[in-house]
Design goal:
Layout: E1 10-12, E2 26-40, H1 64-80, E3 92-98, H2 101-108, E4 118-122, E5 132-138, E6 142-150, E7 154-155, E8 178-179, E9 185-187, E10 191-198, E11 201-209, H3 217-241, E12 247-252, H4 260-266, E13 268-269, E14 280-281, H5 284-289, E15 295-297, E16 300-302, E17 305-310, E18 322-328, E19 361-368
Parallel strand pairs: 2-3, 11-12, 13-14
Antiparallel strand pairs: 1-2, 2-19, 3-5, 4-5, 6-10, 7-9, 8-9, 10-11, 12-17, 14-17, 15-16, 18-19
Helix pairs in contact: 1-2, 3-4
């Protein structure tokens, strides 16, 4: 069903206290999702990046047919994320491991997504593999007013730095860091900041893909800690402008919710009761503690993919949009059902075009319908 302009899905949430007449309250709901698209490359060789393996003559023997199958697979997932409580597709979709804007244009034209009329916000990052972050949004629900890509400056030798004048290999993956031989800068993904209005209410979204664990978790941790510190400064800058700024930061952090980059540098808390004014809440830490995961490596699960919200989004007054709950979208069709990696996310192989080596994550925002 196509949603008319300005109208979102309205649901009955029975977890709330009924009003004085004994009737359950009605709420508007929006799904916010993040998905690591795992090597969403086209088949064309870009001379400025290291994408040769994702060409017909490369190691992956990447053909047009394989590319189209990959797009179809991703579209199915994106259309269904969070459909348990919200039958509409996500209002927002953050993504990473995206080669360029053109692959996103192809993605949103897939039959399962085209009627949703997604807009695209994307910048090319300095990552040498040519992979970027981006935000897709349903244009009839969200109107962006500003967006910028904020670079992360980190260096292999010397002190890591995240100073930025513009601001007011995973373990088990092929995400390897590239280092400049001139100044030893590690070229990684920018952090994407988008501000706009959701049903007339200002929302800020940051999309991330933090530096990989190439070289080992401990050795590379300072790079992700620098990414967390930059993320915190972006949030601080938004809150200086508006103390009540509603901020959602999401992405593949290449760290779990308990690692220094998330717990200390960003300052995310696992429980709402622990979040102080201007702080941030991470609902995925409790999931990680319970053994859930978005990525598996050597038969161990971790939650690298997270959506974290500012304290202004965990209030009990639902007259404006607030966080409701979170989830990991790990349906059976996304899971490898045989072989060495049985039970893992169904990724690419030489014989099968899978989905991703990550499961997507999502949260719901709700607001009482007047």
């Amino acid at each position: 069903m196509k949603i008319t302009h300005g109208i979102a899905i309205v649901i009955l949430l029975f977890f709330m206290v009924p009003n004085s007449f004994g009737q359950p309250k009605k709420y508007i709901i929006h799904t916010v999702a993040f998905y690591n698209f795992e090597n969403l490359f086209d088949t064309v060789d870009d001379p400025d990046t290291f994408d040769e393996e994702w060409t017909p003559n490369g190691l992956q023997r990447w053909t047009v047919n394989k590319y189209q199958k990959k797009l179809s697979n991703l579209a199915r997932v994106l259309a269904e994320i969070g459909s348990g409580e919200n039958t509409d597709s996500p209002t927002f979709i953050g993504g990473c491991e995206i080669e360029n804007r053109e692959v996103l244009e192809d993605l949103i034209k897939q039959p399962k997504l085209i009627e949703k009329d997604y807009g695209i916000i994307h910048f090319d990052s300095p990552d040498k593999r040519g992979i970027d972050v981006a935000l897709l949004y349903q244009k009839n629900k969200f109107q962006p007013t500003s967006f910028s890509n904020i670079p992360l400056y980190i260096y292999k030798k010397g002190n890591s730095s995240t100073e930025n004048s513009k601001l007011i290999s995973d373990e088990g993956s092929d995400d390897e860091m590239q280092v400049s031989t001139k100044n030893y800068r590690v070229y990684t993904r920018d952090q994407l900041l988008v501000t706009g209005f959701l049903d007339g209410e200002e929302i800020n979204i940051i999309v991330n893909h933090w530096p990989s664990r190439s070289g080992g978790e401990k050795k590379s941790s300072p790079f992700r800690e620098a990414a967390g510190a930059l993320n915190r400064r972006i949030i601080d800058s938004l809150q200086r402008i508006n103390p009540n700024a509603k901020v959602i930061t999401m992405g593949d952090m290449n760290d779990g919710p308990y690692n220094k980059s998330v717990k200390i540098a960003l300052g995310a808390k696992a429980k709402k009761s622990e979040v102080k004014e201007f702080g941030v809440f991470n609902p995925f830490e409790e999931m990680a503690k319970s053994g859930m995961g978005t990525i598996a490596y050597r038969d161990a699960w971790d939650v690298f993919d997270q959506i974290i919200v500012s304290e202004s989004l965990i209030k009990t007054d639902y007259s404006t949009f607030q966080y409701w709950k979170a989830g990991i979208y790990n349906k059976s069709f996304l899971i490898q059902n045989s072989g060495q990696y049985k039970g893992y996310p169904l990724r690419h192989s030489t014989t099968e075009i899978g989905y991703s080596d990550h499961f997507p994550v999502y949260i719901y925002l709700i607001k009482e319908k007047k």
